[in-house]
Amino acid sequence: MNQPFKLFSKNPTVPTLGLDSLAAQALDVLPGVTLLVNAVGVIVYASHAITRSLGWRTSDLTDKSLLGLFPAADQQKLQTLLASQSAAPAATVLAQDLDIQVFNNKQQVIKAKIFVARIDWHGQPHTCLSLRFAALENLELRLAREQAQEFKQANENKSRFLANMSHEIRTPLNGVLGMIDLLASSPLNSQQRDYLSSLKKSSRYLRALIKDVLDFSKIEAGMIETEHVPFDLVEVLSAVIQSFTPTASAKGVLLQLDPALSHKNYIGDPHRLSQVLNNLVSNALKFTASGRVKITVSSRLLMTTEDLCRLTISVTDTGKGLQPDQLAELFSEFHQTSKSISRHYGGTGLGLFISKELVKLMGGEISAVSEEGKGSDFFFELPLQVAPDDESRDE
């Protein structure tokens, strides 16, 4: 094997400085190679990582000139840095992520990045060099990518499993709700009816939670598909109003519909559109203690040759409203504007995220504006093709 540093002999006139055991142990466990060099360029300390990374023993390097570790092309870089350290104050960074090449113990050239700083050690100026090697970084990066891919695959498998289980989960729950309705039509005393009412509310709440989780899993797994069928928009809107009227009446909140439509029949996905609208109206009623919730609908013809319209639907309420910082994360998954809201109102925090993804799948956009204490306005736009009146069908 070639002997190291033939061009640079040991300098007996400059004493080397040993590190205390604690500092040496700290440097030795770091993945990068750490070298301490005195004022005349002699290595006074080399961390044990030099053996793992380059094959040198620390005794091969101690008391040898630093420049012998590097090819001639890179020695000038180091000489410039070493010369500048004498005029620099202590704890000054002289170079960071500087590309350089270094010899291993077989005199092979290895690419590295070097960090150089000026320090004081026992009252004398020294240079601290830290070497990071591309091969090690690439290995760490590859391992990190593999771990991320494994996590992603596991997450996709989970989402796909839940999405595939959708029917198996919903069917027995719907059976439970059906039996509750049948039981409610039978002769019961007042206490039994109270029990049954609580059971029905809990079952419906459980069904809503399961529906959100399953829809979220389908979105994650890319298993949500949209339809393109003729439908009557007025019927969809009226069904939403009808389903939420009892809730609004019980709270004393006025539920209004203001359709300003040039056409009533469109081609799109009435089920997904209704799902988004149900989410928005449900949220609006949940956070509105008094006043009103209003659904406003308008359409504008974009392309007369293809009868393409831009449909705009907004749900405006007079509820508690939101702060500006709450709006920023409003459509994120599992988001609740505060822990107190989650405790008081319940829910998964998935409704708005699911709505955003469904609107995106239908080619539209959803947004919101709000002011604390003055209510909120959630609105979404969809490009829909106008359908002839006789092509609409009941959903």
Question: What report would you give on this structure?
Answer:
With 395 residues, the protein is α+β, with helices and mostly antiparallel strands. The chain has 3 domains: 21-135, 2-Layer Sandwich (Beta-Lactamase), CATH 3.30.450.20; 139-220, Signal transduction histidine kinase, dimerisation/phosphotransfer (DHp) domain (Helix Hairpins, Orthogonal Bundle); 229-391, Histidine kinase-like ATPase, C-terminal domain (Heat Shock Protein 90). It has helices at 21-28, 49-54, 58-61, 72-85, 134-164, 166-184, 190-220, 233-251, 270-286, 324-328, 339-345, 351-361; strands spanning 33-37, 43-46, 92-103, 109-121, 124-133, 229-232, 253-260, 265-268, 291-303, 308-317, 365-370, 376-386. The relative contact order is 0.08. The model is unreliable at 1-17 (pLDDT under 50).
